[in-house]
Amino acid sequence: MEFIFQPNNSIVKKLILGLIFIICIANLQAQQQLRIVVSQQIEERSGKQFYIHTVQKGQTVYAIAKAYEVSVDEIYYENPGTEAGISIDQQLWIPTISKEQEVTKELKRADFDFFYHIASNNESLSHIGDLYNIPVSAIRNANPLLMLPLRKGEYIKIPVLNSGEEKENISFDPNIPVKADFRHTVKAGETLTSIAKKYGTTPDKIRAVNSGLGNHPRAGQRLRIPQTATSKKQEEKAVQKTEYISYKIKKRETLYSIARDYGVTADDIYDANEGLTYRIYTGQVIRIPRITIANTYIVHKITKTTKIKKVAKLYKIPASEILDLNPSLGTKLYAGQTVKIPVGNKATIAANVPDEKPEGKETIDKNYQEPPTPLGCNKLKTIKNKTFQVALMIPFFLEETDSLDVEQFLASEQSNFKPFRFIHFYEGALMAVDSMRSLGMNIELFVYDVDKSITKTTKVLQKAEIREMDVIIGPYYQQSFDQVALFAGNFNIPIVNPLSYRSETVEKYRTVIKVKSGTKYQADMLQVIIPEYFSGAKVFLVNQTSYKDANKISEIQQKISSILPPEIKISNTDIYNLAISVAHRDEEFDDRSPIPDYKLEGRTIKPELISEMMTDSTTFNNSITQITFTKDGLEPFMNTASPLRTNLVVVYGDNKAFVMDVMNKLNEFRDSLNIKVIGMPTWDRLNNLDEVQSNNMNLMYFSTDFIDYQSQNTQDFIKGFKQQFNTEPNNYGFAGFDITYYTLHSLFRFDKNLIRCLKYAPMKMLRGFYQFEKTGKSKNVENTYWNILQYNNYTIQKLPDPVIPSKLSN
Prior knowledge:
Blueprint: H1 10-32, E1 42-45, E2 48-54, H2 61-68, H3 72-78, E3 91-95, H4 99-109, E4 114-118, H5 125-132, H6 136-142, E5 155-159, E6 184-185, H7 192-198, H8 203-208, E7 222-223, H9 232-239, E8 243-248, H10 255-262, H11 266-272, E9 285-290, E10 292-293, E11 297-301, E12 306-307, H12 308-315, H13 319-325, E13 332-333, E14 338-342, E15 348-349, E16 363-365, E17 387-394, H14 406-411, H15 418-421, H16 423-438, E18 442-449, H17 454-461, E19 471-473, H18 478-490, E20 495-497, H19 504-508, E21 512-514, H20 522-533, E22 538-543, H21 550-563, E23 567-571, H22 572-583, E24 598-600, E25 603-605, H23 607-610, E26 617-621, E27 625-628, H24 629-632, H25 635-640, E28 647-652, H26 656-668, E29 675-680, H27 691-696, E30 700-703, H28 712-725, H29 731-750, H30 754-757, E31 763-764, E32 769-770, E33 772-774, E34 781-783, E35 787-792, E36 795-798
Parallel strand pairs: 10-15, 17-18, 17-19, 19-20, 20-21, 21-34, 22-27, 22-28, 28-29, 29-30
Antiparallel strand pairs: 1-2, 2-3, 4-5, 6-7, 8-9, 8-16, 11-14, 12-13, 23-26, 24-25, 30-35, 31-32, 33-34, 35-36
Helix pairs in contact: 16-29, 17-18, 20-21
């Protein structure tokens, strides 16, 4: 894969300048504010403990919140009216246990999956239920102590329902008649309920005619609609073949102004352009349906209170033209009202269709047919008529800048300063975004500061745009990722887990793309590696304890056993020569004496018998030897290791003390035995292993990352990164580019089929290879690829990729 690096550093510059601004302002505020002493007065209210703080001159809510290690919102919530300001000598109730501590404890104790919703003032449970498409009864069950009316800032648990839970299980029914030659294109903000209401049907019936449809249709998704009672005239109109105009959008046009010109509605244009959003751009090509209308106007429905001037601006016409056509309307419009909008000169009215072709760049495609929806994932064309909304959740820890000593900060090295820790990932991601934009992908990037804090994460999830994302990359930390993954699964949004090795990531959630390779695939790779590099070796499997990862150890043992021949033959000449060597280790041995018996691979060897069959060979058992280190040490290895062939020791465990102990003991036998070691599952995460020992035993291990600095792609990336950011990328910089580029490149091809089609989109990246397979439950996929690295001549080399039998046909 050849990458095109088109970085743009303007966003990073803004971030850094903004960060410096925050630091300076926060430092100035800190200098001006008085030191706040935590109150010793504690009282109880509604079963909770509170500090009673008396406001002093010069104190602010922000400073008080920081002193008590709570958020400003918590003070506002517990002290109604303080959002308008606080006064000297006012007493504030401040919880002794912060909301962050409270929700973290709730999540740990919970016996069901949920994420949080922060209520607005007097928000109804039915509104929350509609927002997340779950029954009110489920919300009540998850929040048994909930009191109505809800208060602003109240945390509500939103349970994640399993398939069929709290609702009827709807199966696809091909016998239900649907509207012929018609699909409804879902627009942003629409729900199954609103779509069903529009067509006079029910959400269950829509699910029944759309196989695999979940509770939350995605913007751009095309849905079959159940057939409803319609007049004969309407049925005839429905089956008429629609003509389309190909139109190139001009500067300052809106979808509404274009729709008015052609006598159609904005909804008609949305329906004709799958994936189209209101964010259009100059030069974008769209299709406009050629519709014959009976009147000289179209109808615009008001959904919320507005002014007639705003509607006029939307359609790019004077307000006076609307008022002339709607004499009963005032200047203020209200939800539910309908407004007649005069059509433009390109509209087709009644049967009087103009003979001449309209002016401009549009052409009529009378033979246009809607392309069939692809059944597979062999789609190579990219989607250029859609703006993809992408969320990037990175832990910037920006709140940690509020109490810095600026002079000391700028005068010293700050490599461990948390807000800088993941900046390279962000910069690498920006290079990937700009590279994809250069390939024609329209991207609207949303960047959020999401770290370990549950309350901080929950506030981000309250943003309306999050529900409309095409993909979410991050968060990094487990507790925050758990919340966002549950939220994303509820709205059927793919979410990329960038840095975690946890297998639970793909076992617990619904729409996860796990970038770090699954350790379970290493056993399959061993079945190829061992015959290729260690043919004829005596194999040992060493694990730390008998209970930890017992199932995985058993699986590895079985898979290795399946590729080992049950027996192996060793030349009698070699066996006899070894017998002589063993005998001469005894200084009292006399050459005239018979050669004594000795043990070879745990078996007693009689040299006298062997000497009579020197041209023959002896058969030995070749089964794998499994050793539990805490129980047996390496005694089974010492008793059965072979001095006549390679001893391959597969060491399973990530505890550094265990690994170092095993390596030290094995190294003691290296002078008399040929020992090779394979370390698994994640030895790439172990630091400071003894390089001499690793080299002596040609340590081989699995790694998710390996950067080939001799590669032209790598050199081009480093060069581009240095040009933009004046530094070389660290591993996070490479990760940010790889993960973001691959995700966006695949999204550009597959759109809403992203997760389903990833297994058919392998790609070589800067740090390795991406080859995803479906795993866990629902739609989750996990990278299966591991780099195989080996110590050789005191360098770490990447071995050629083993050929693993493909699973694509499964």
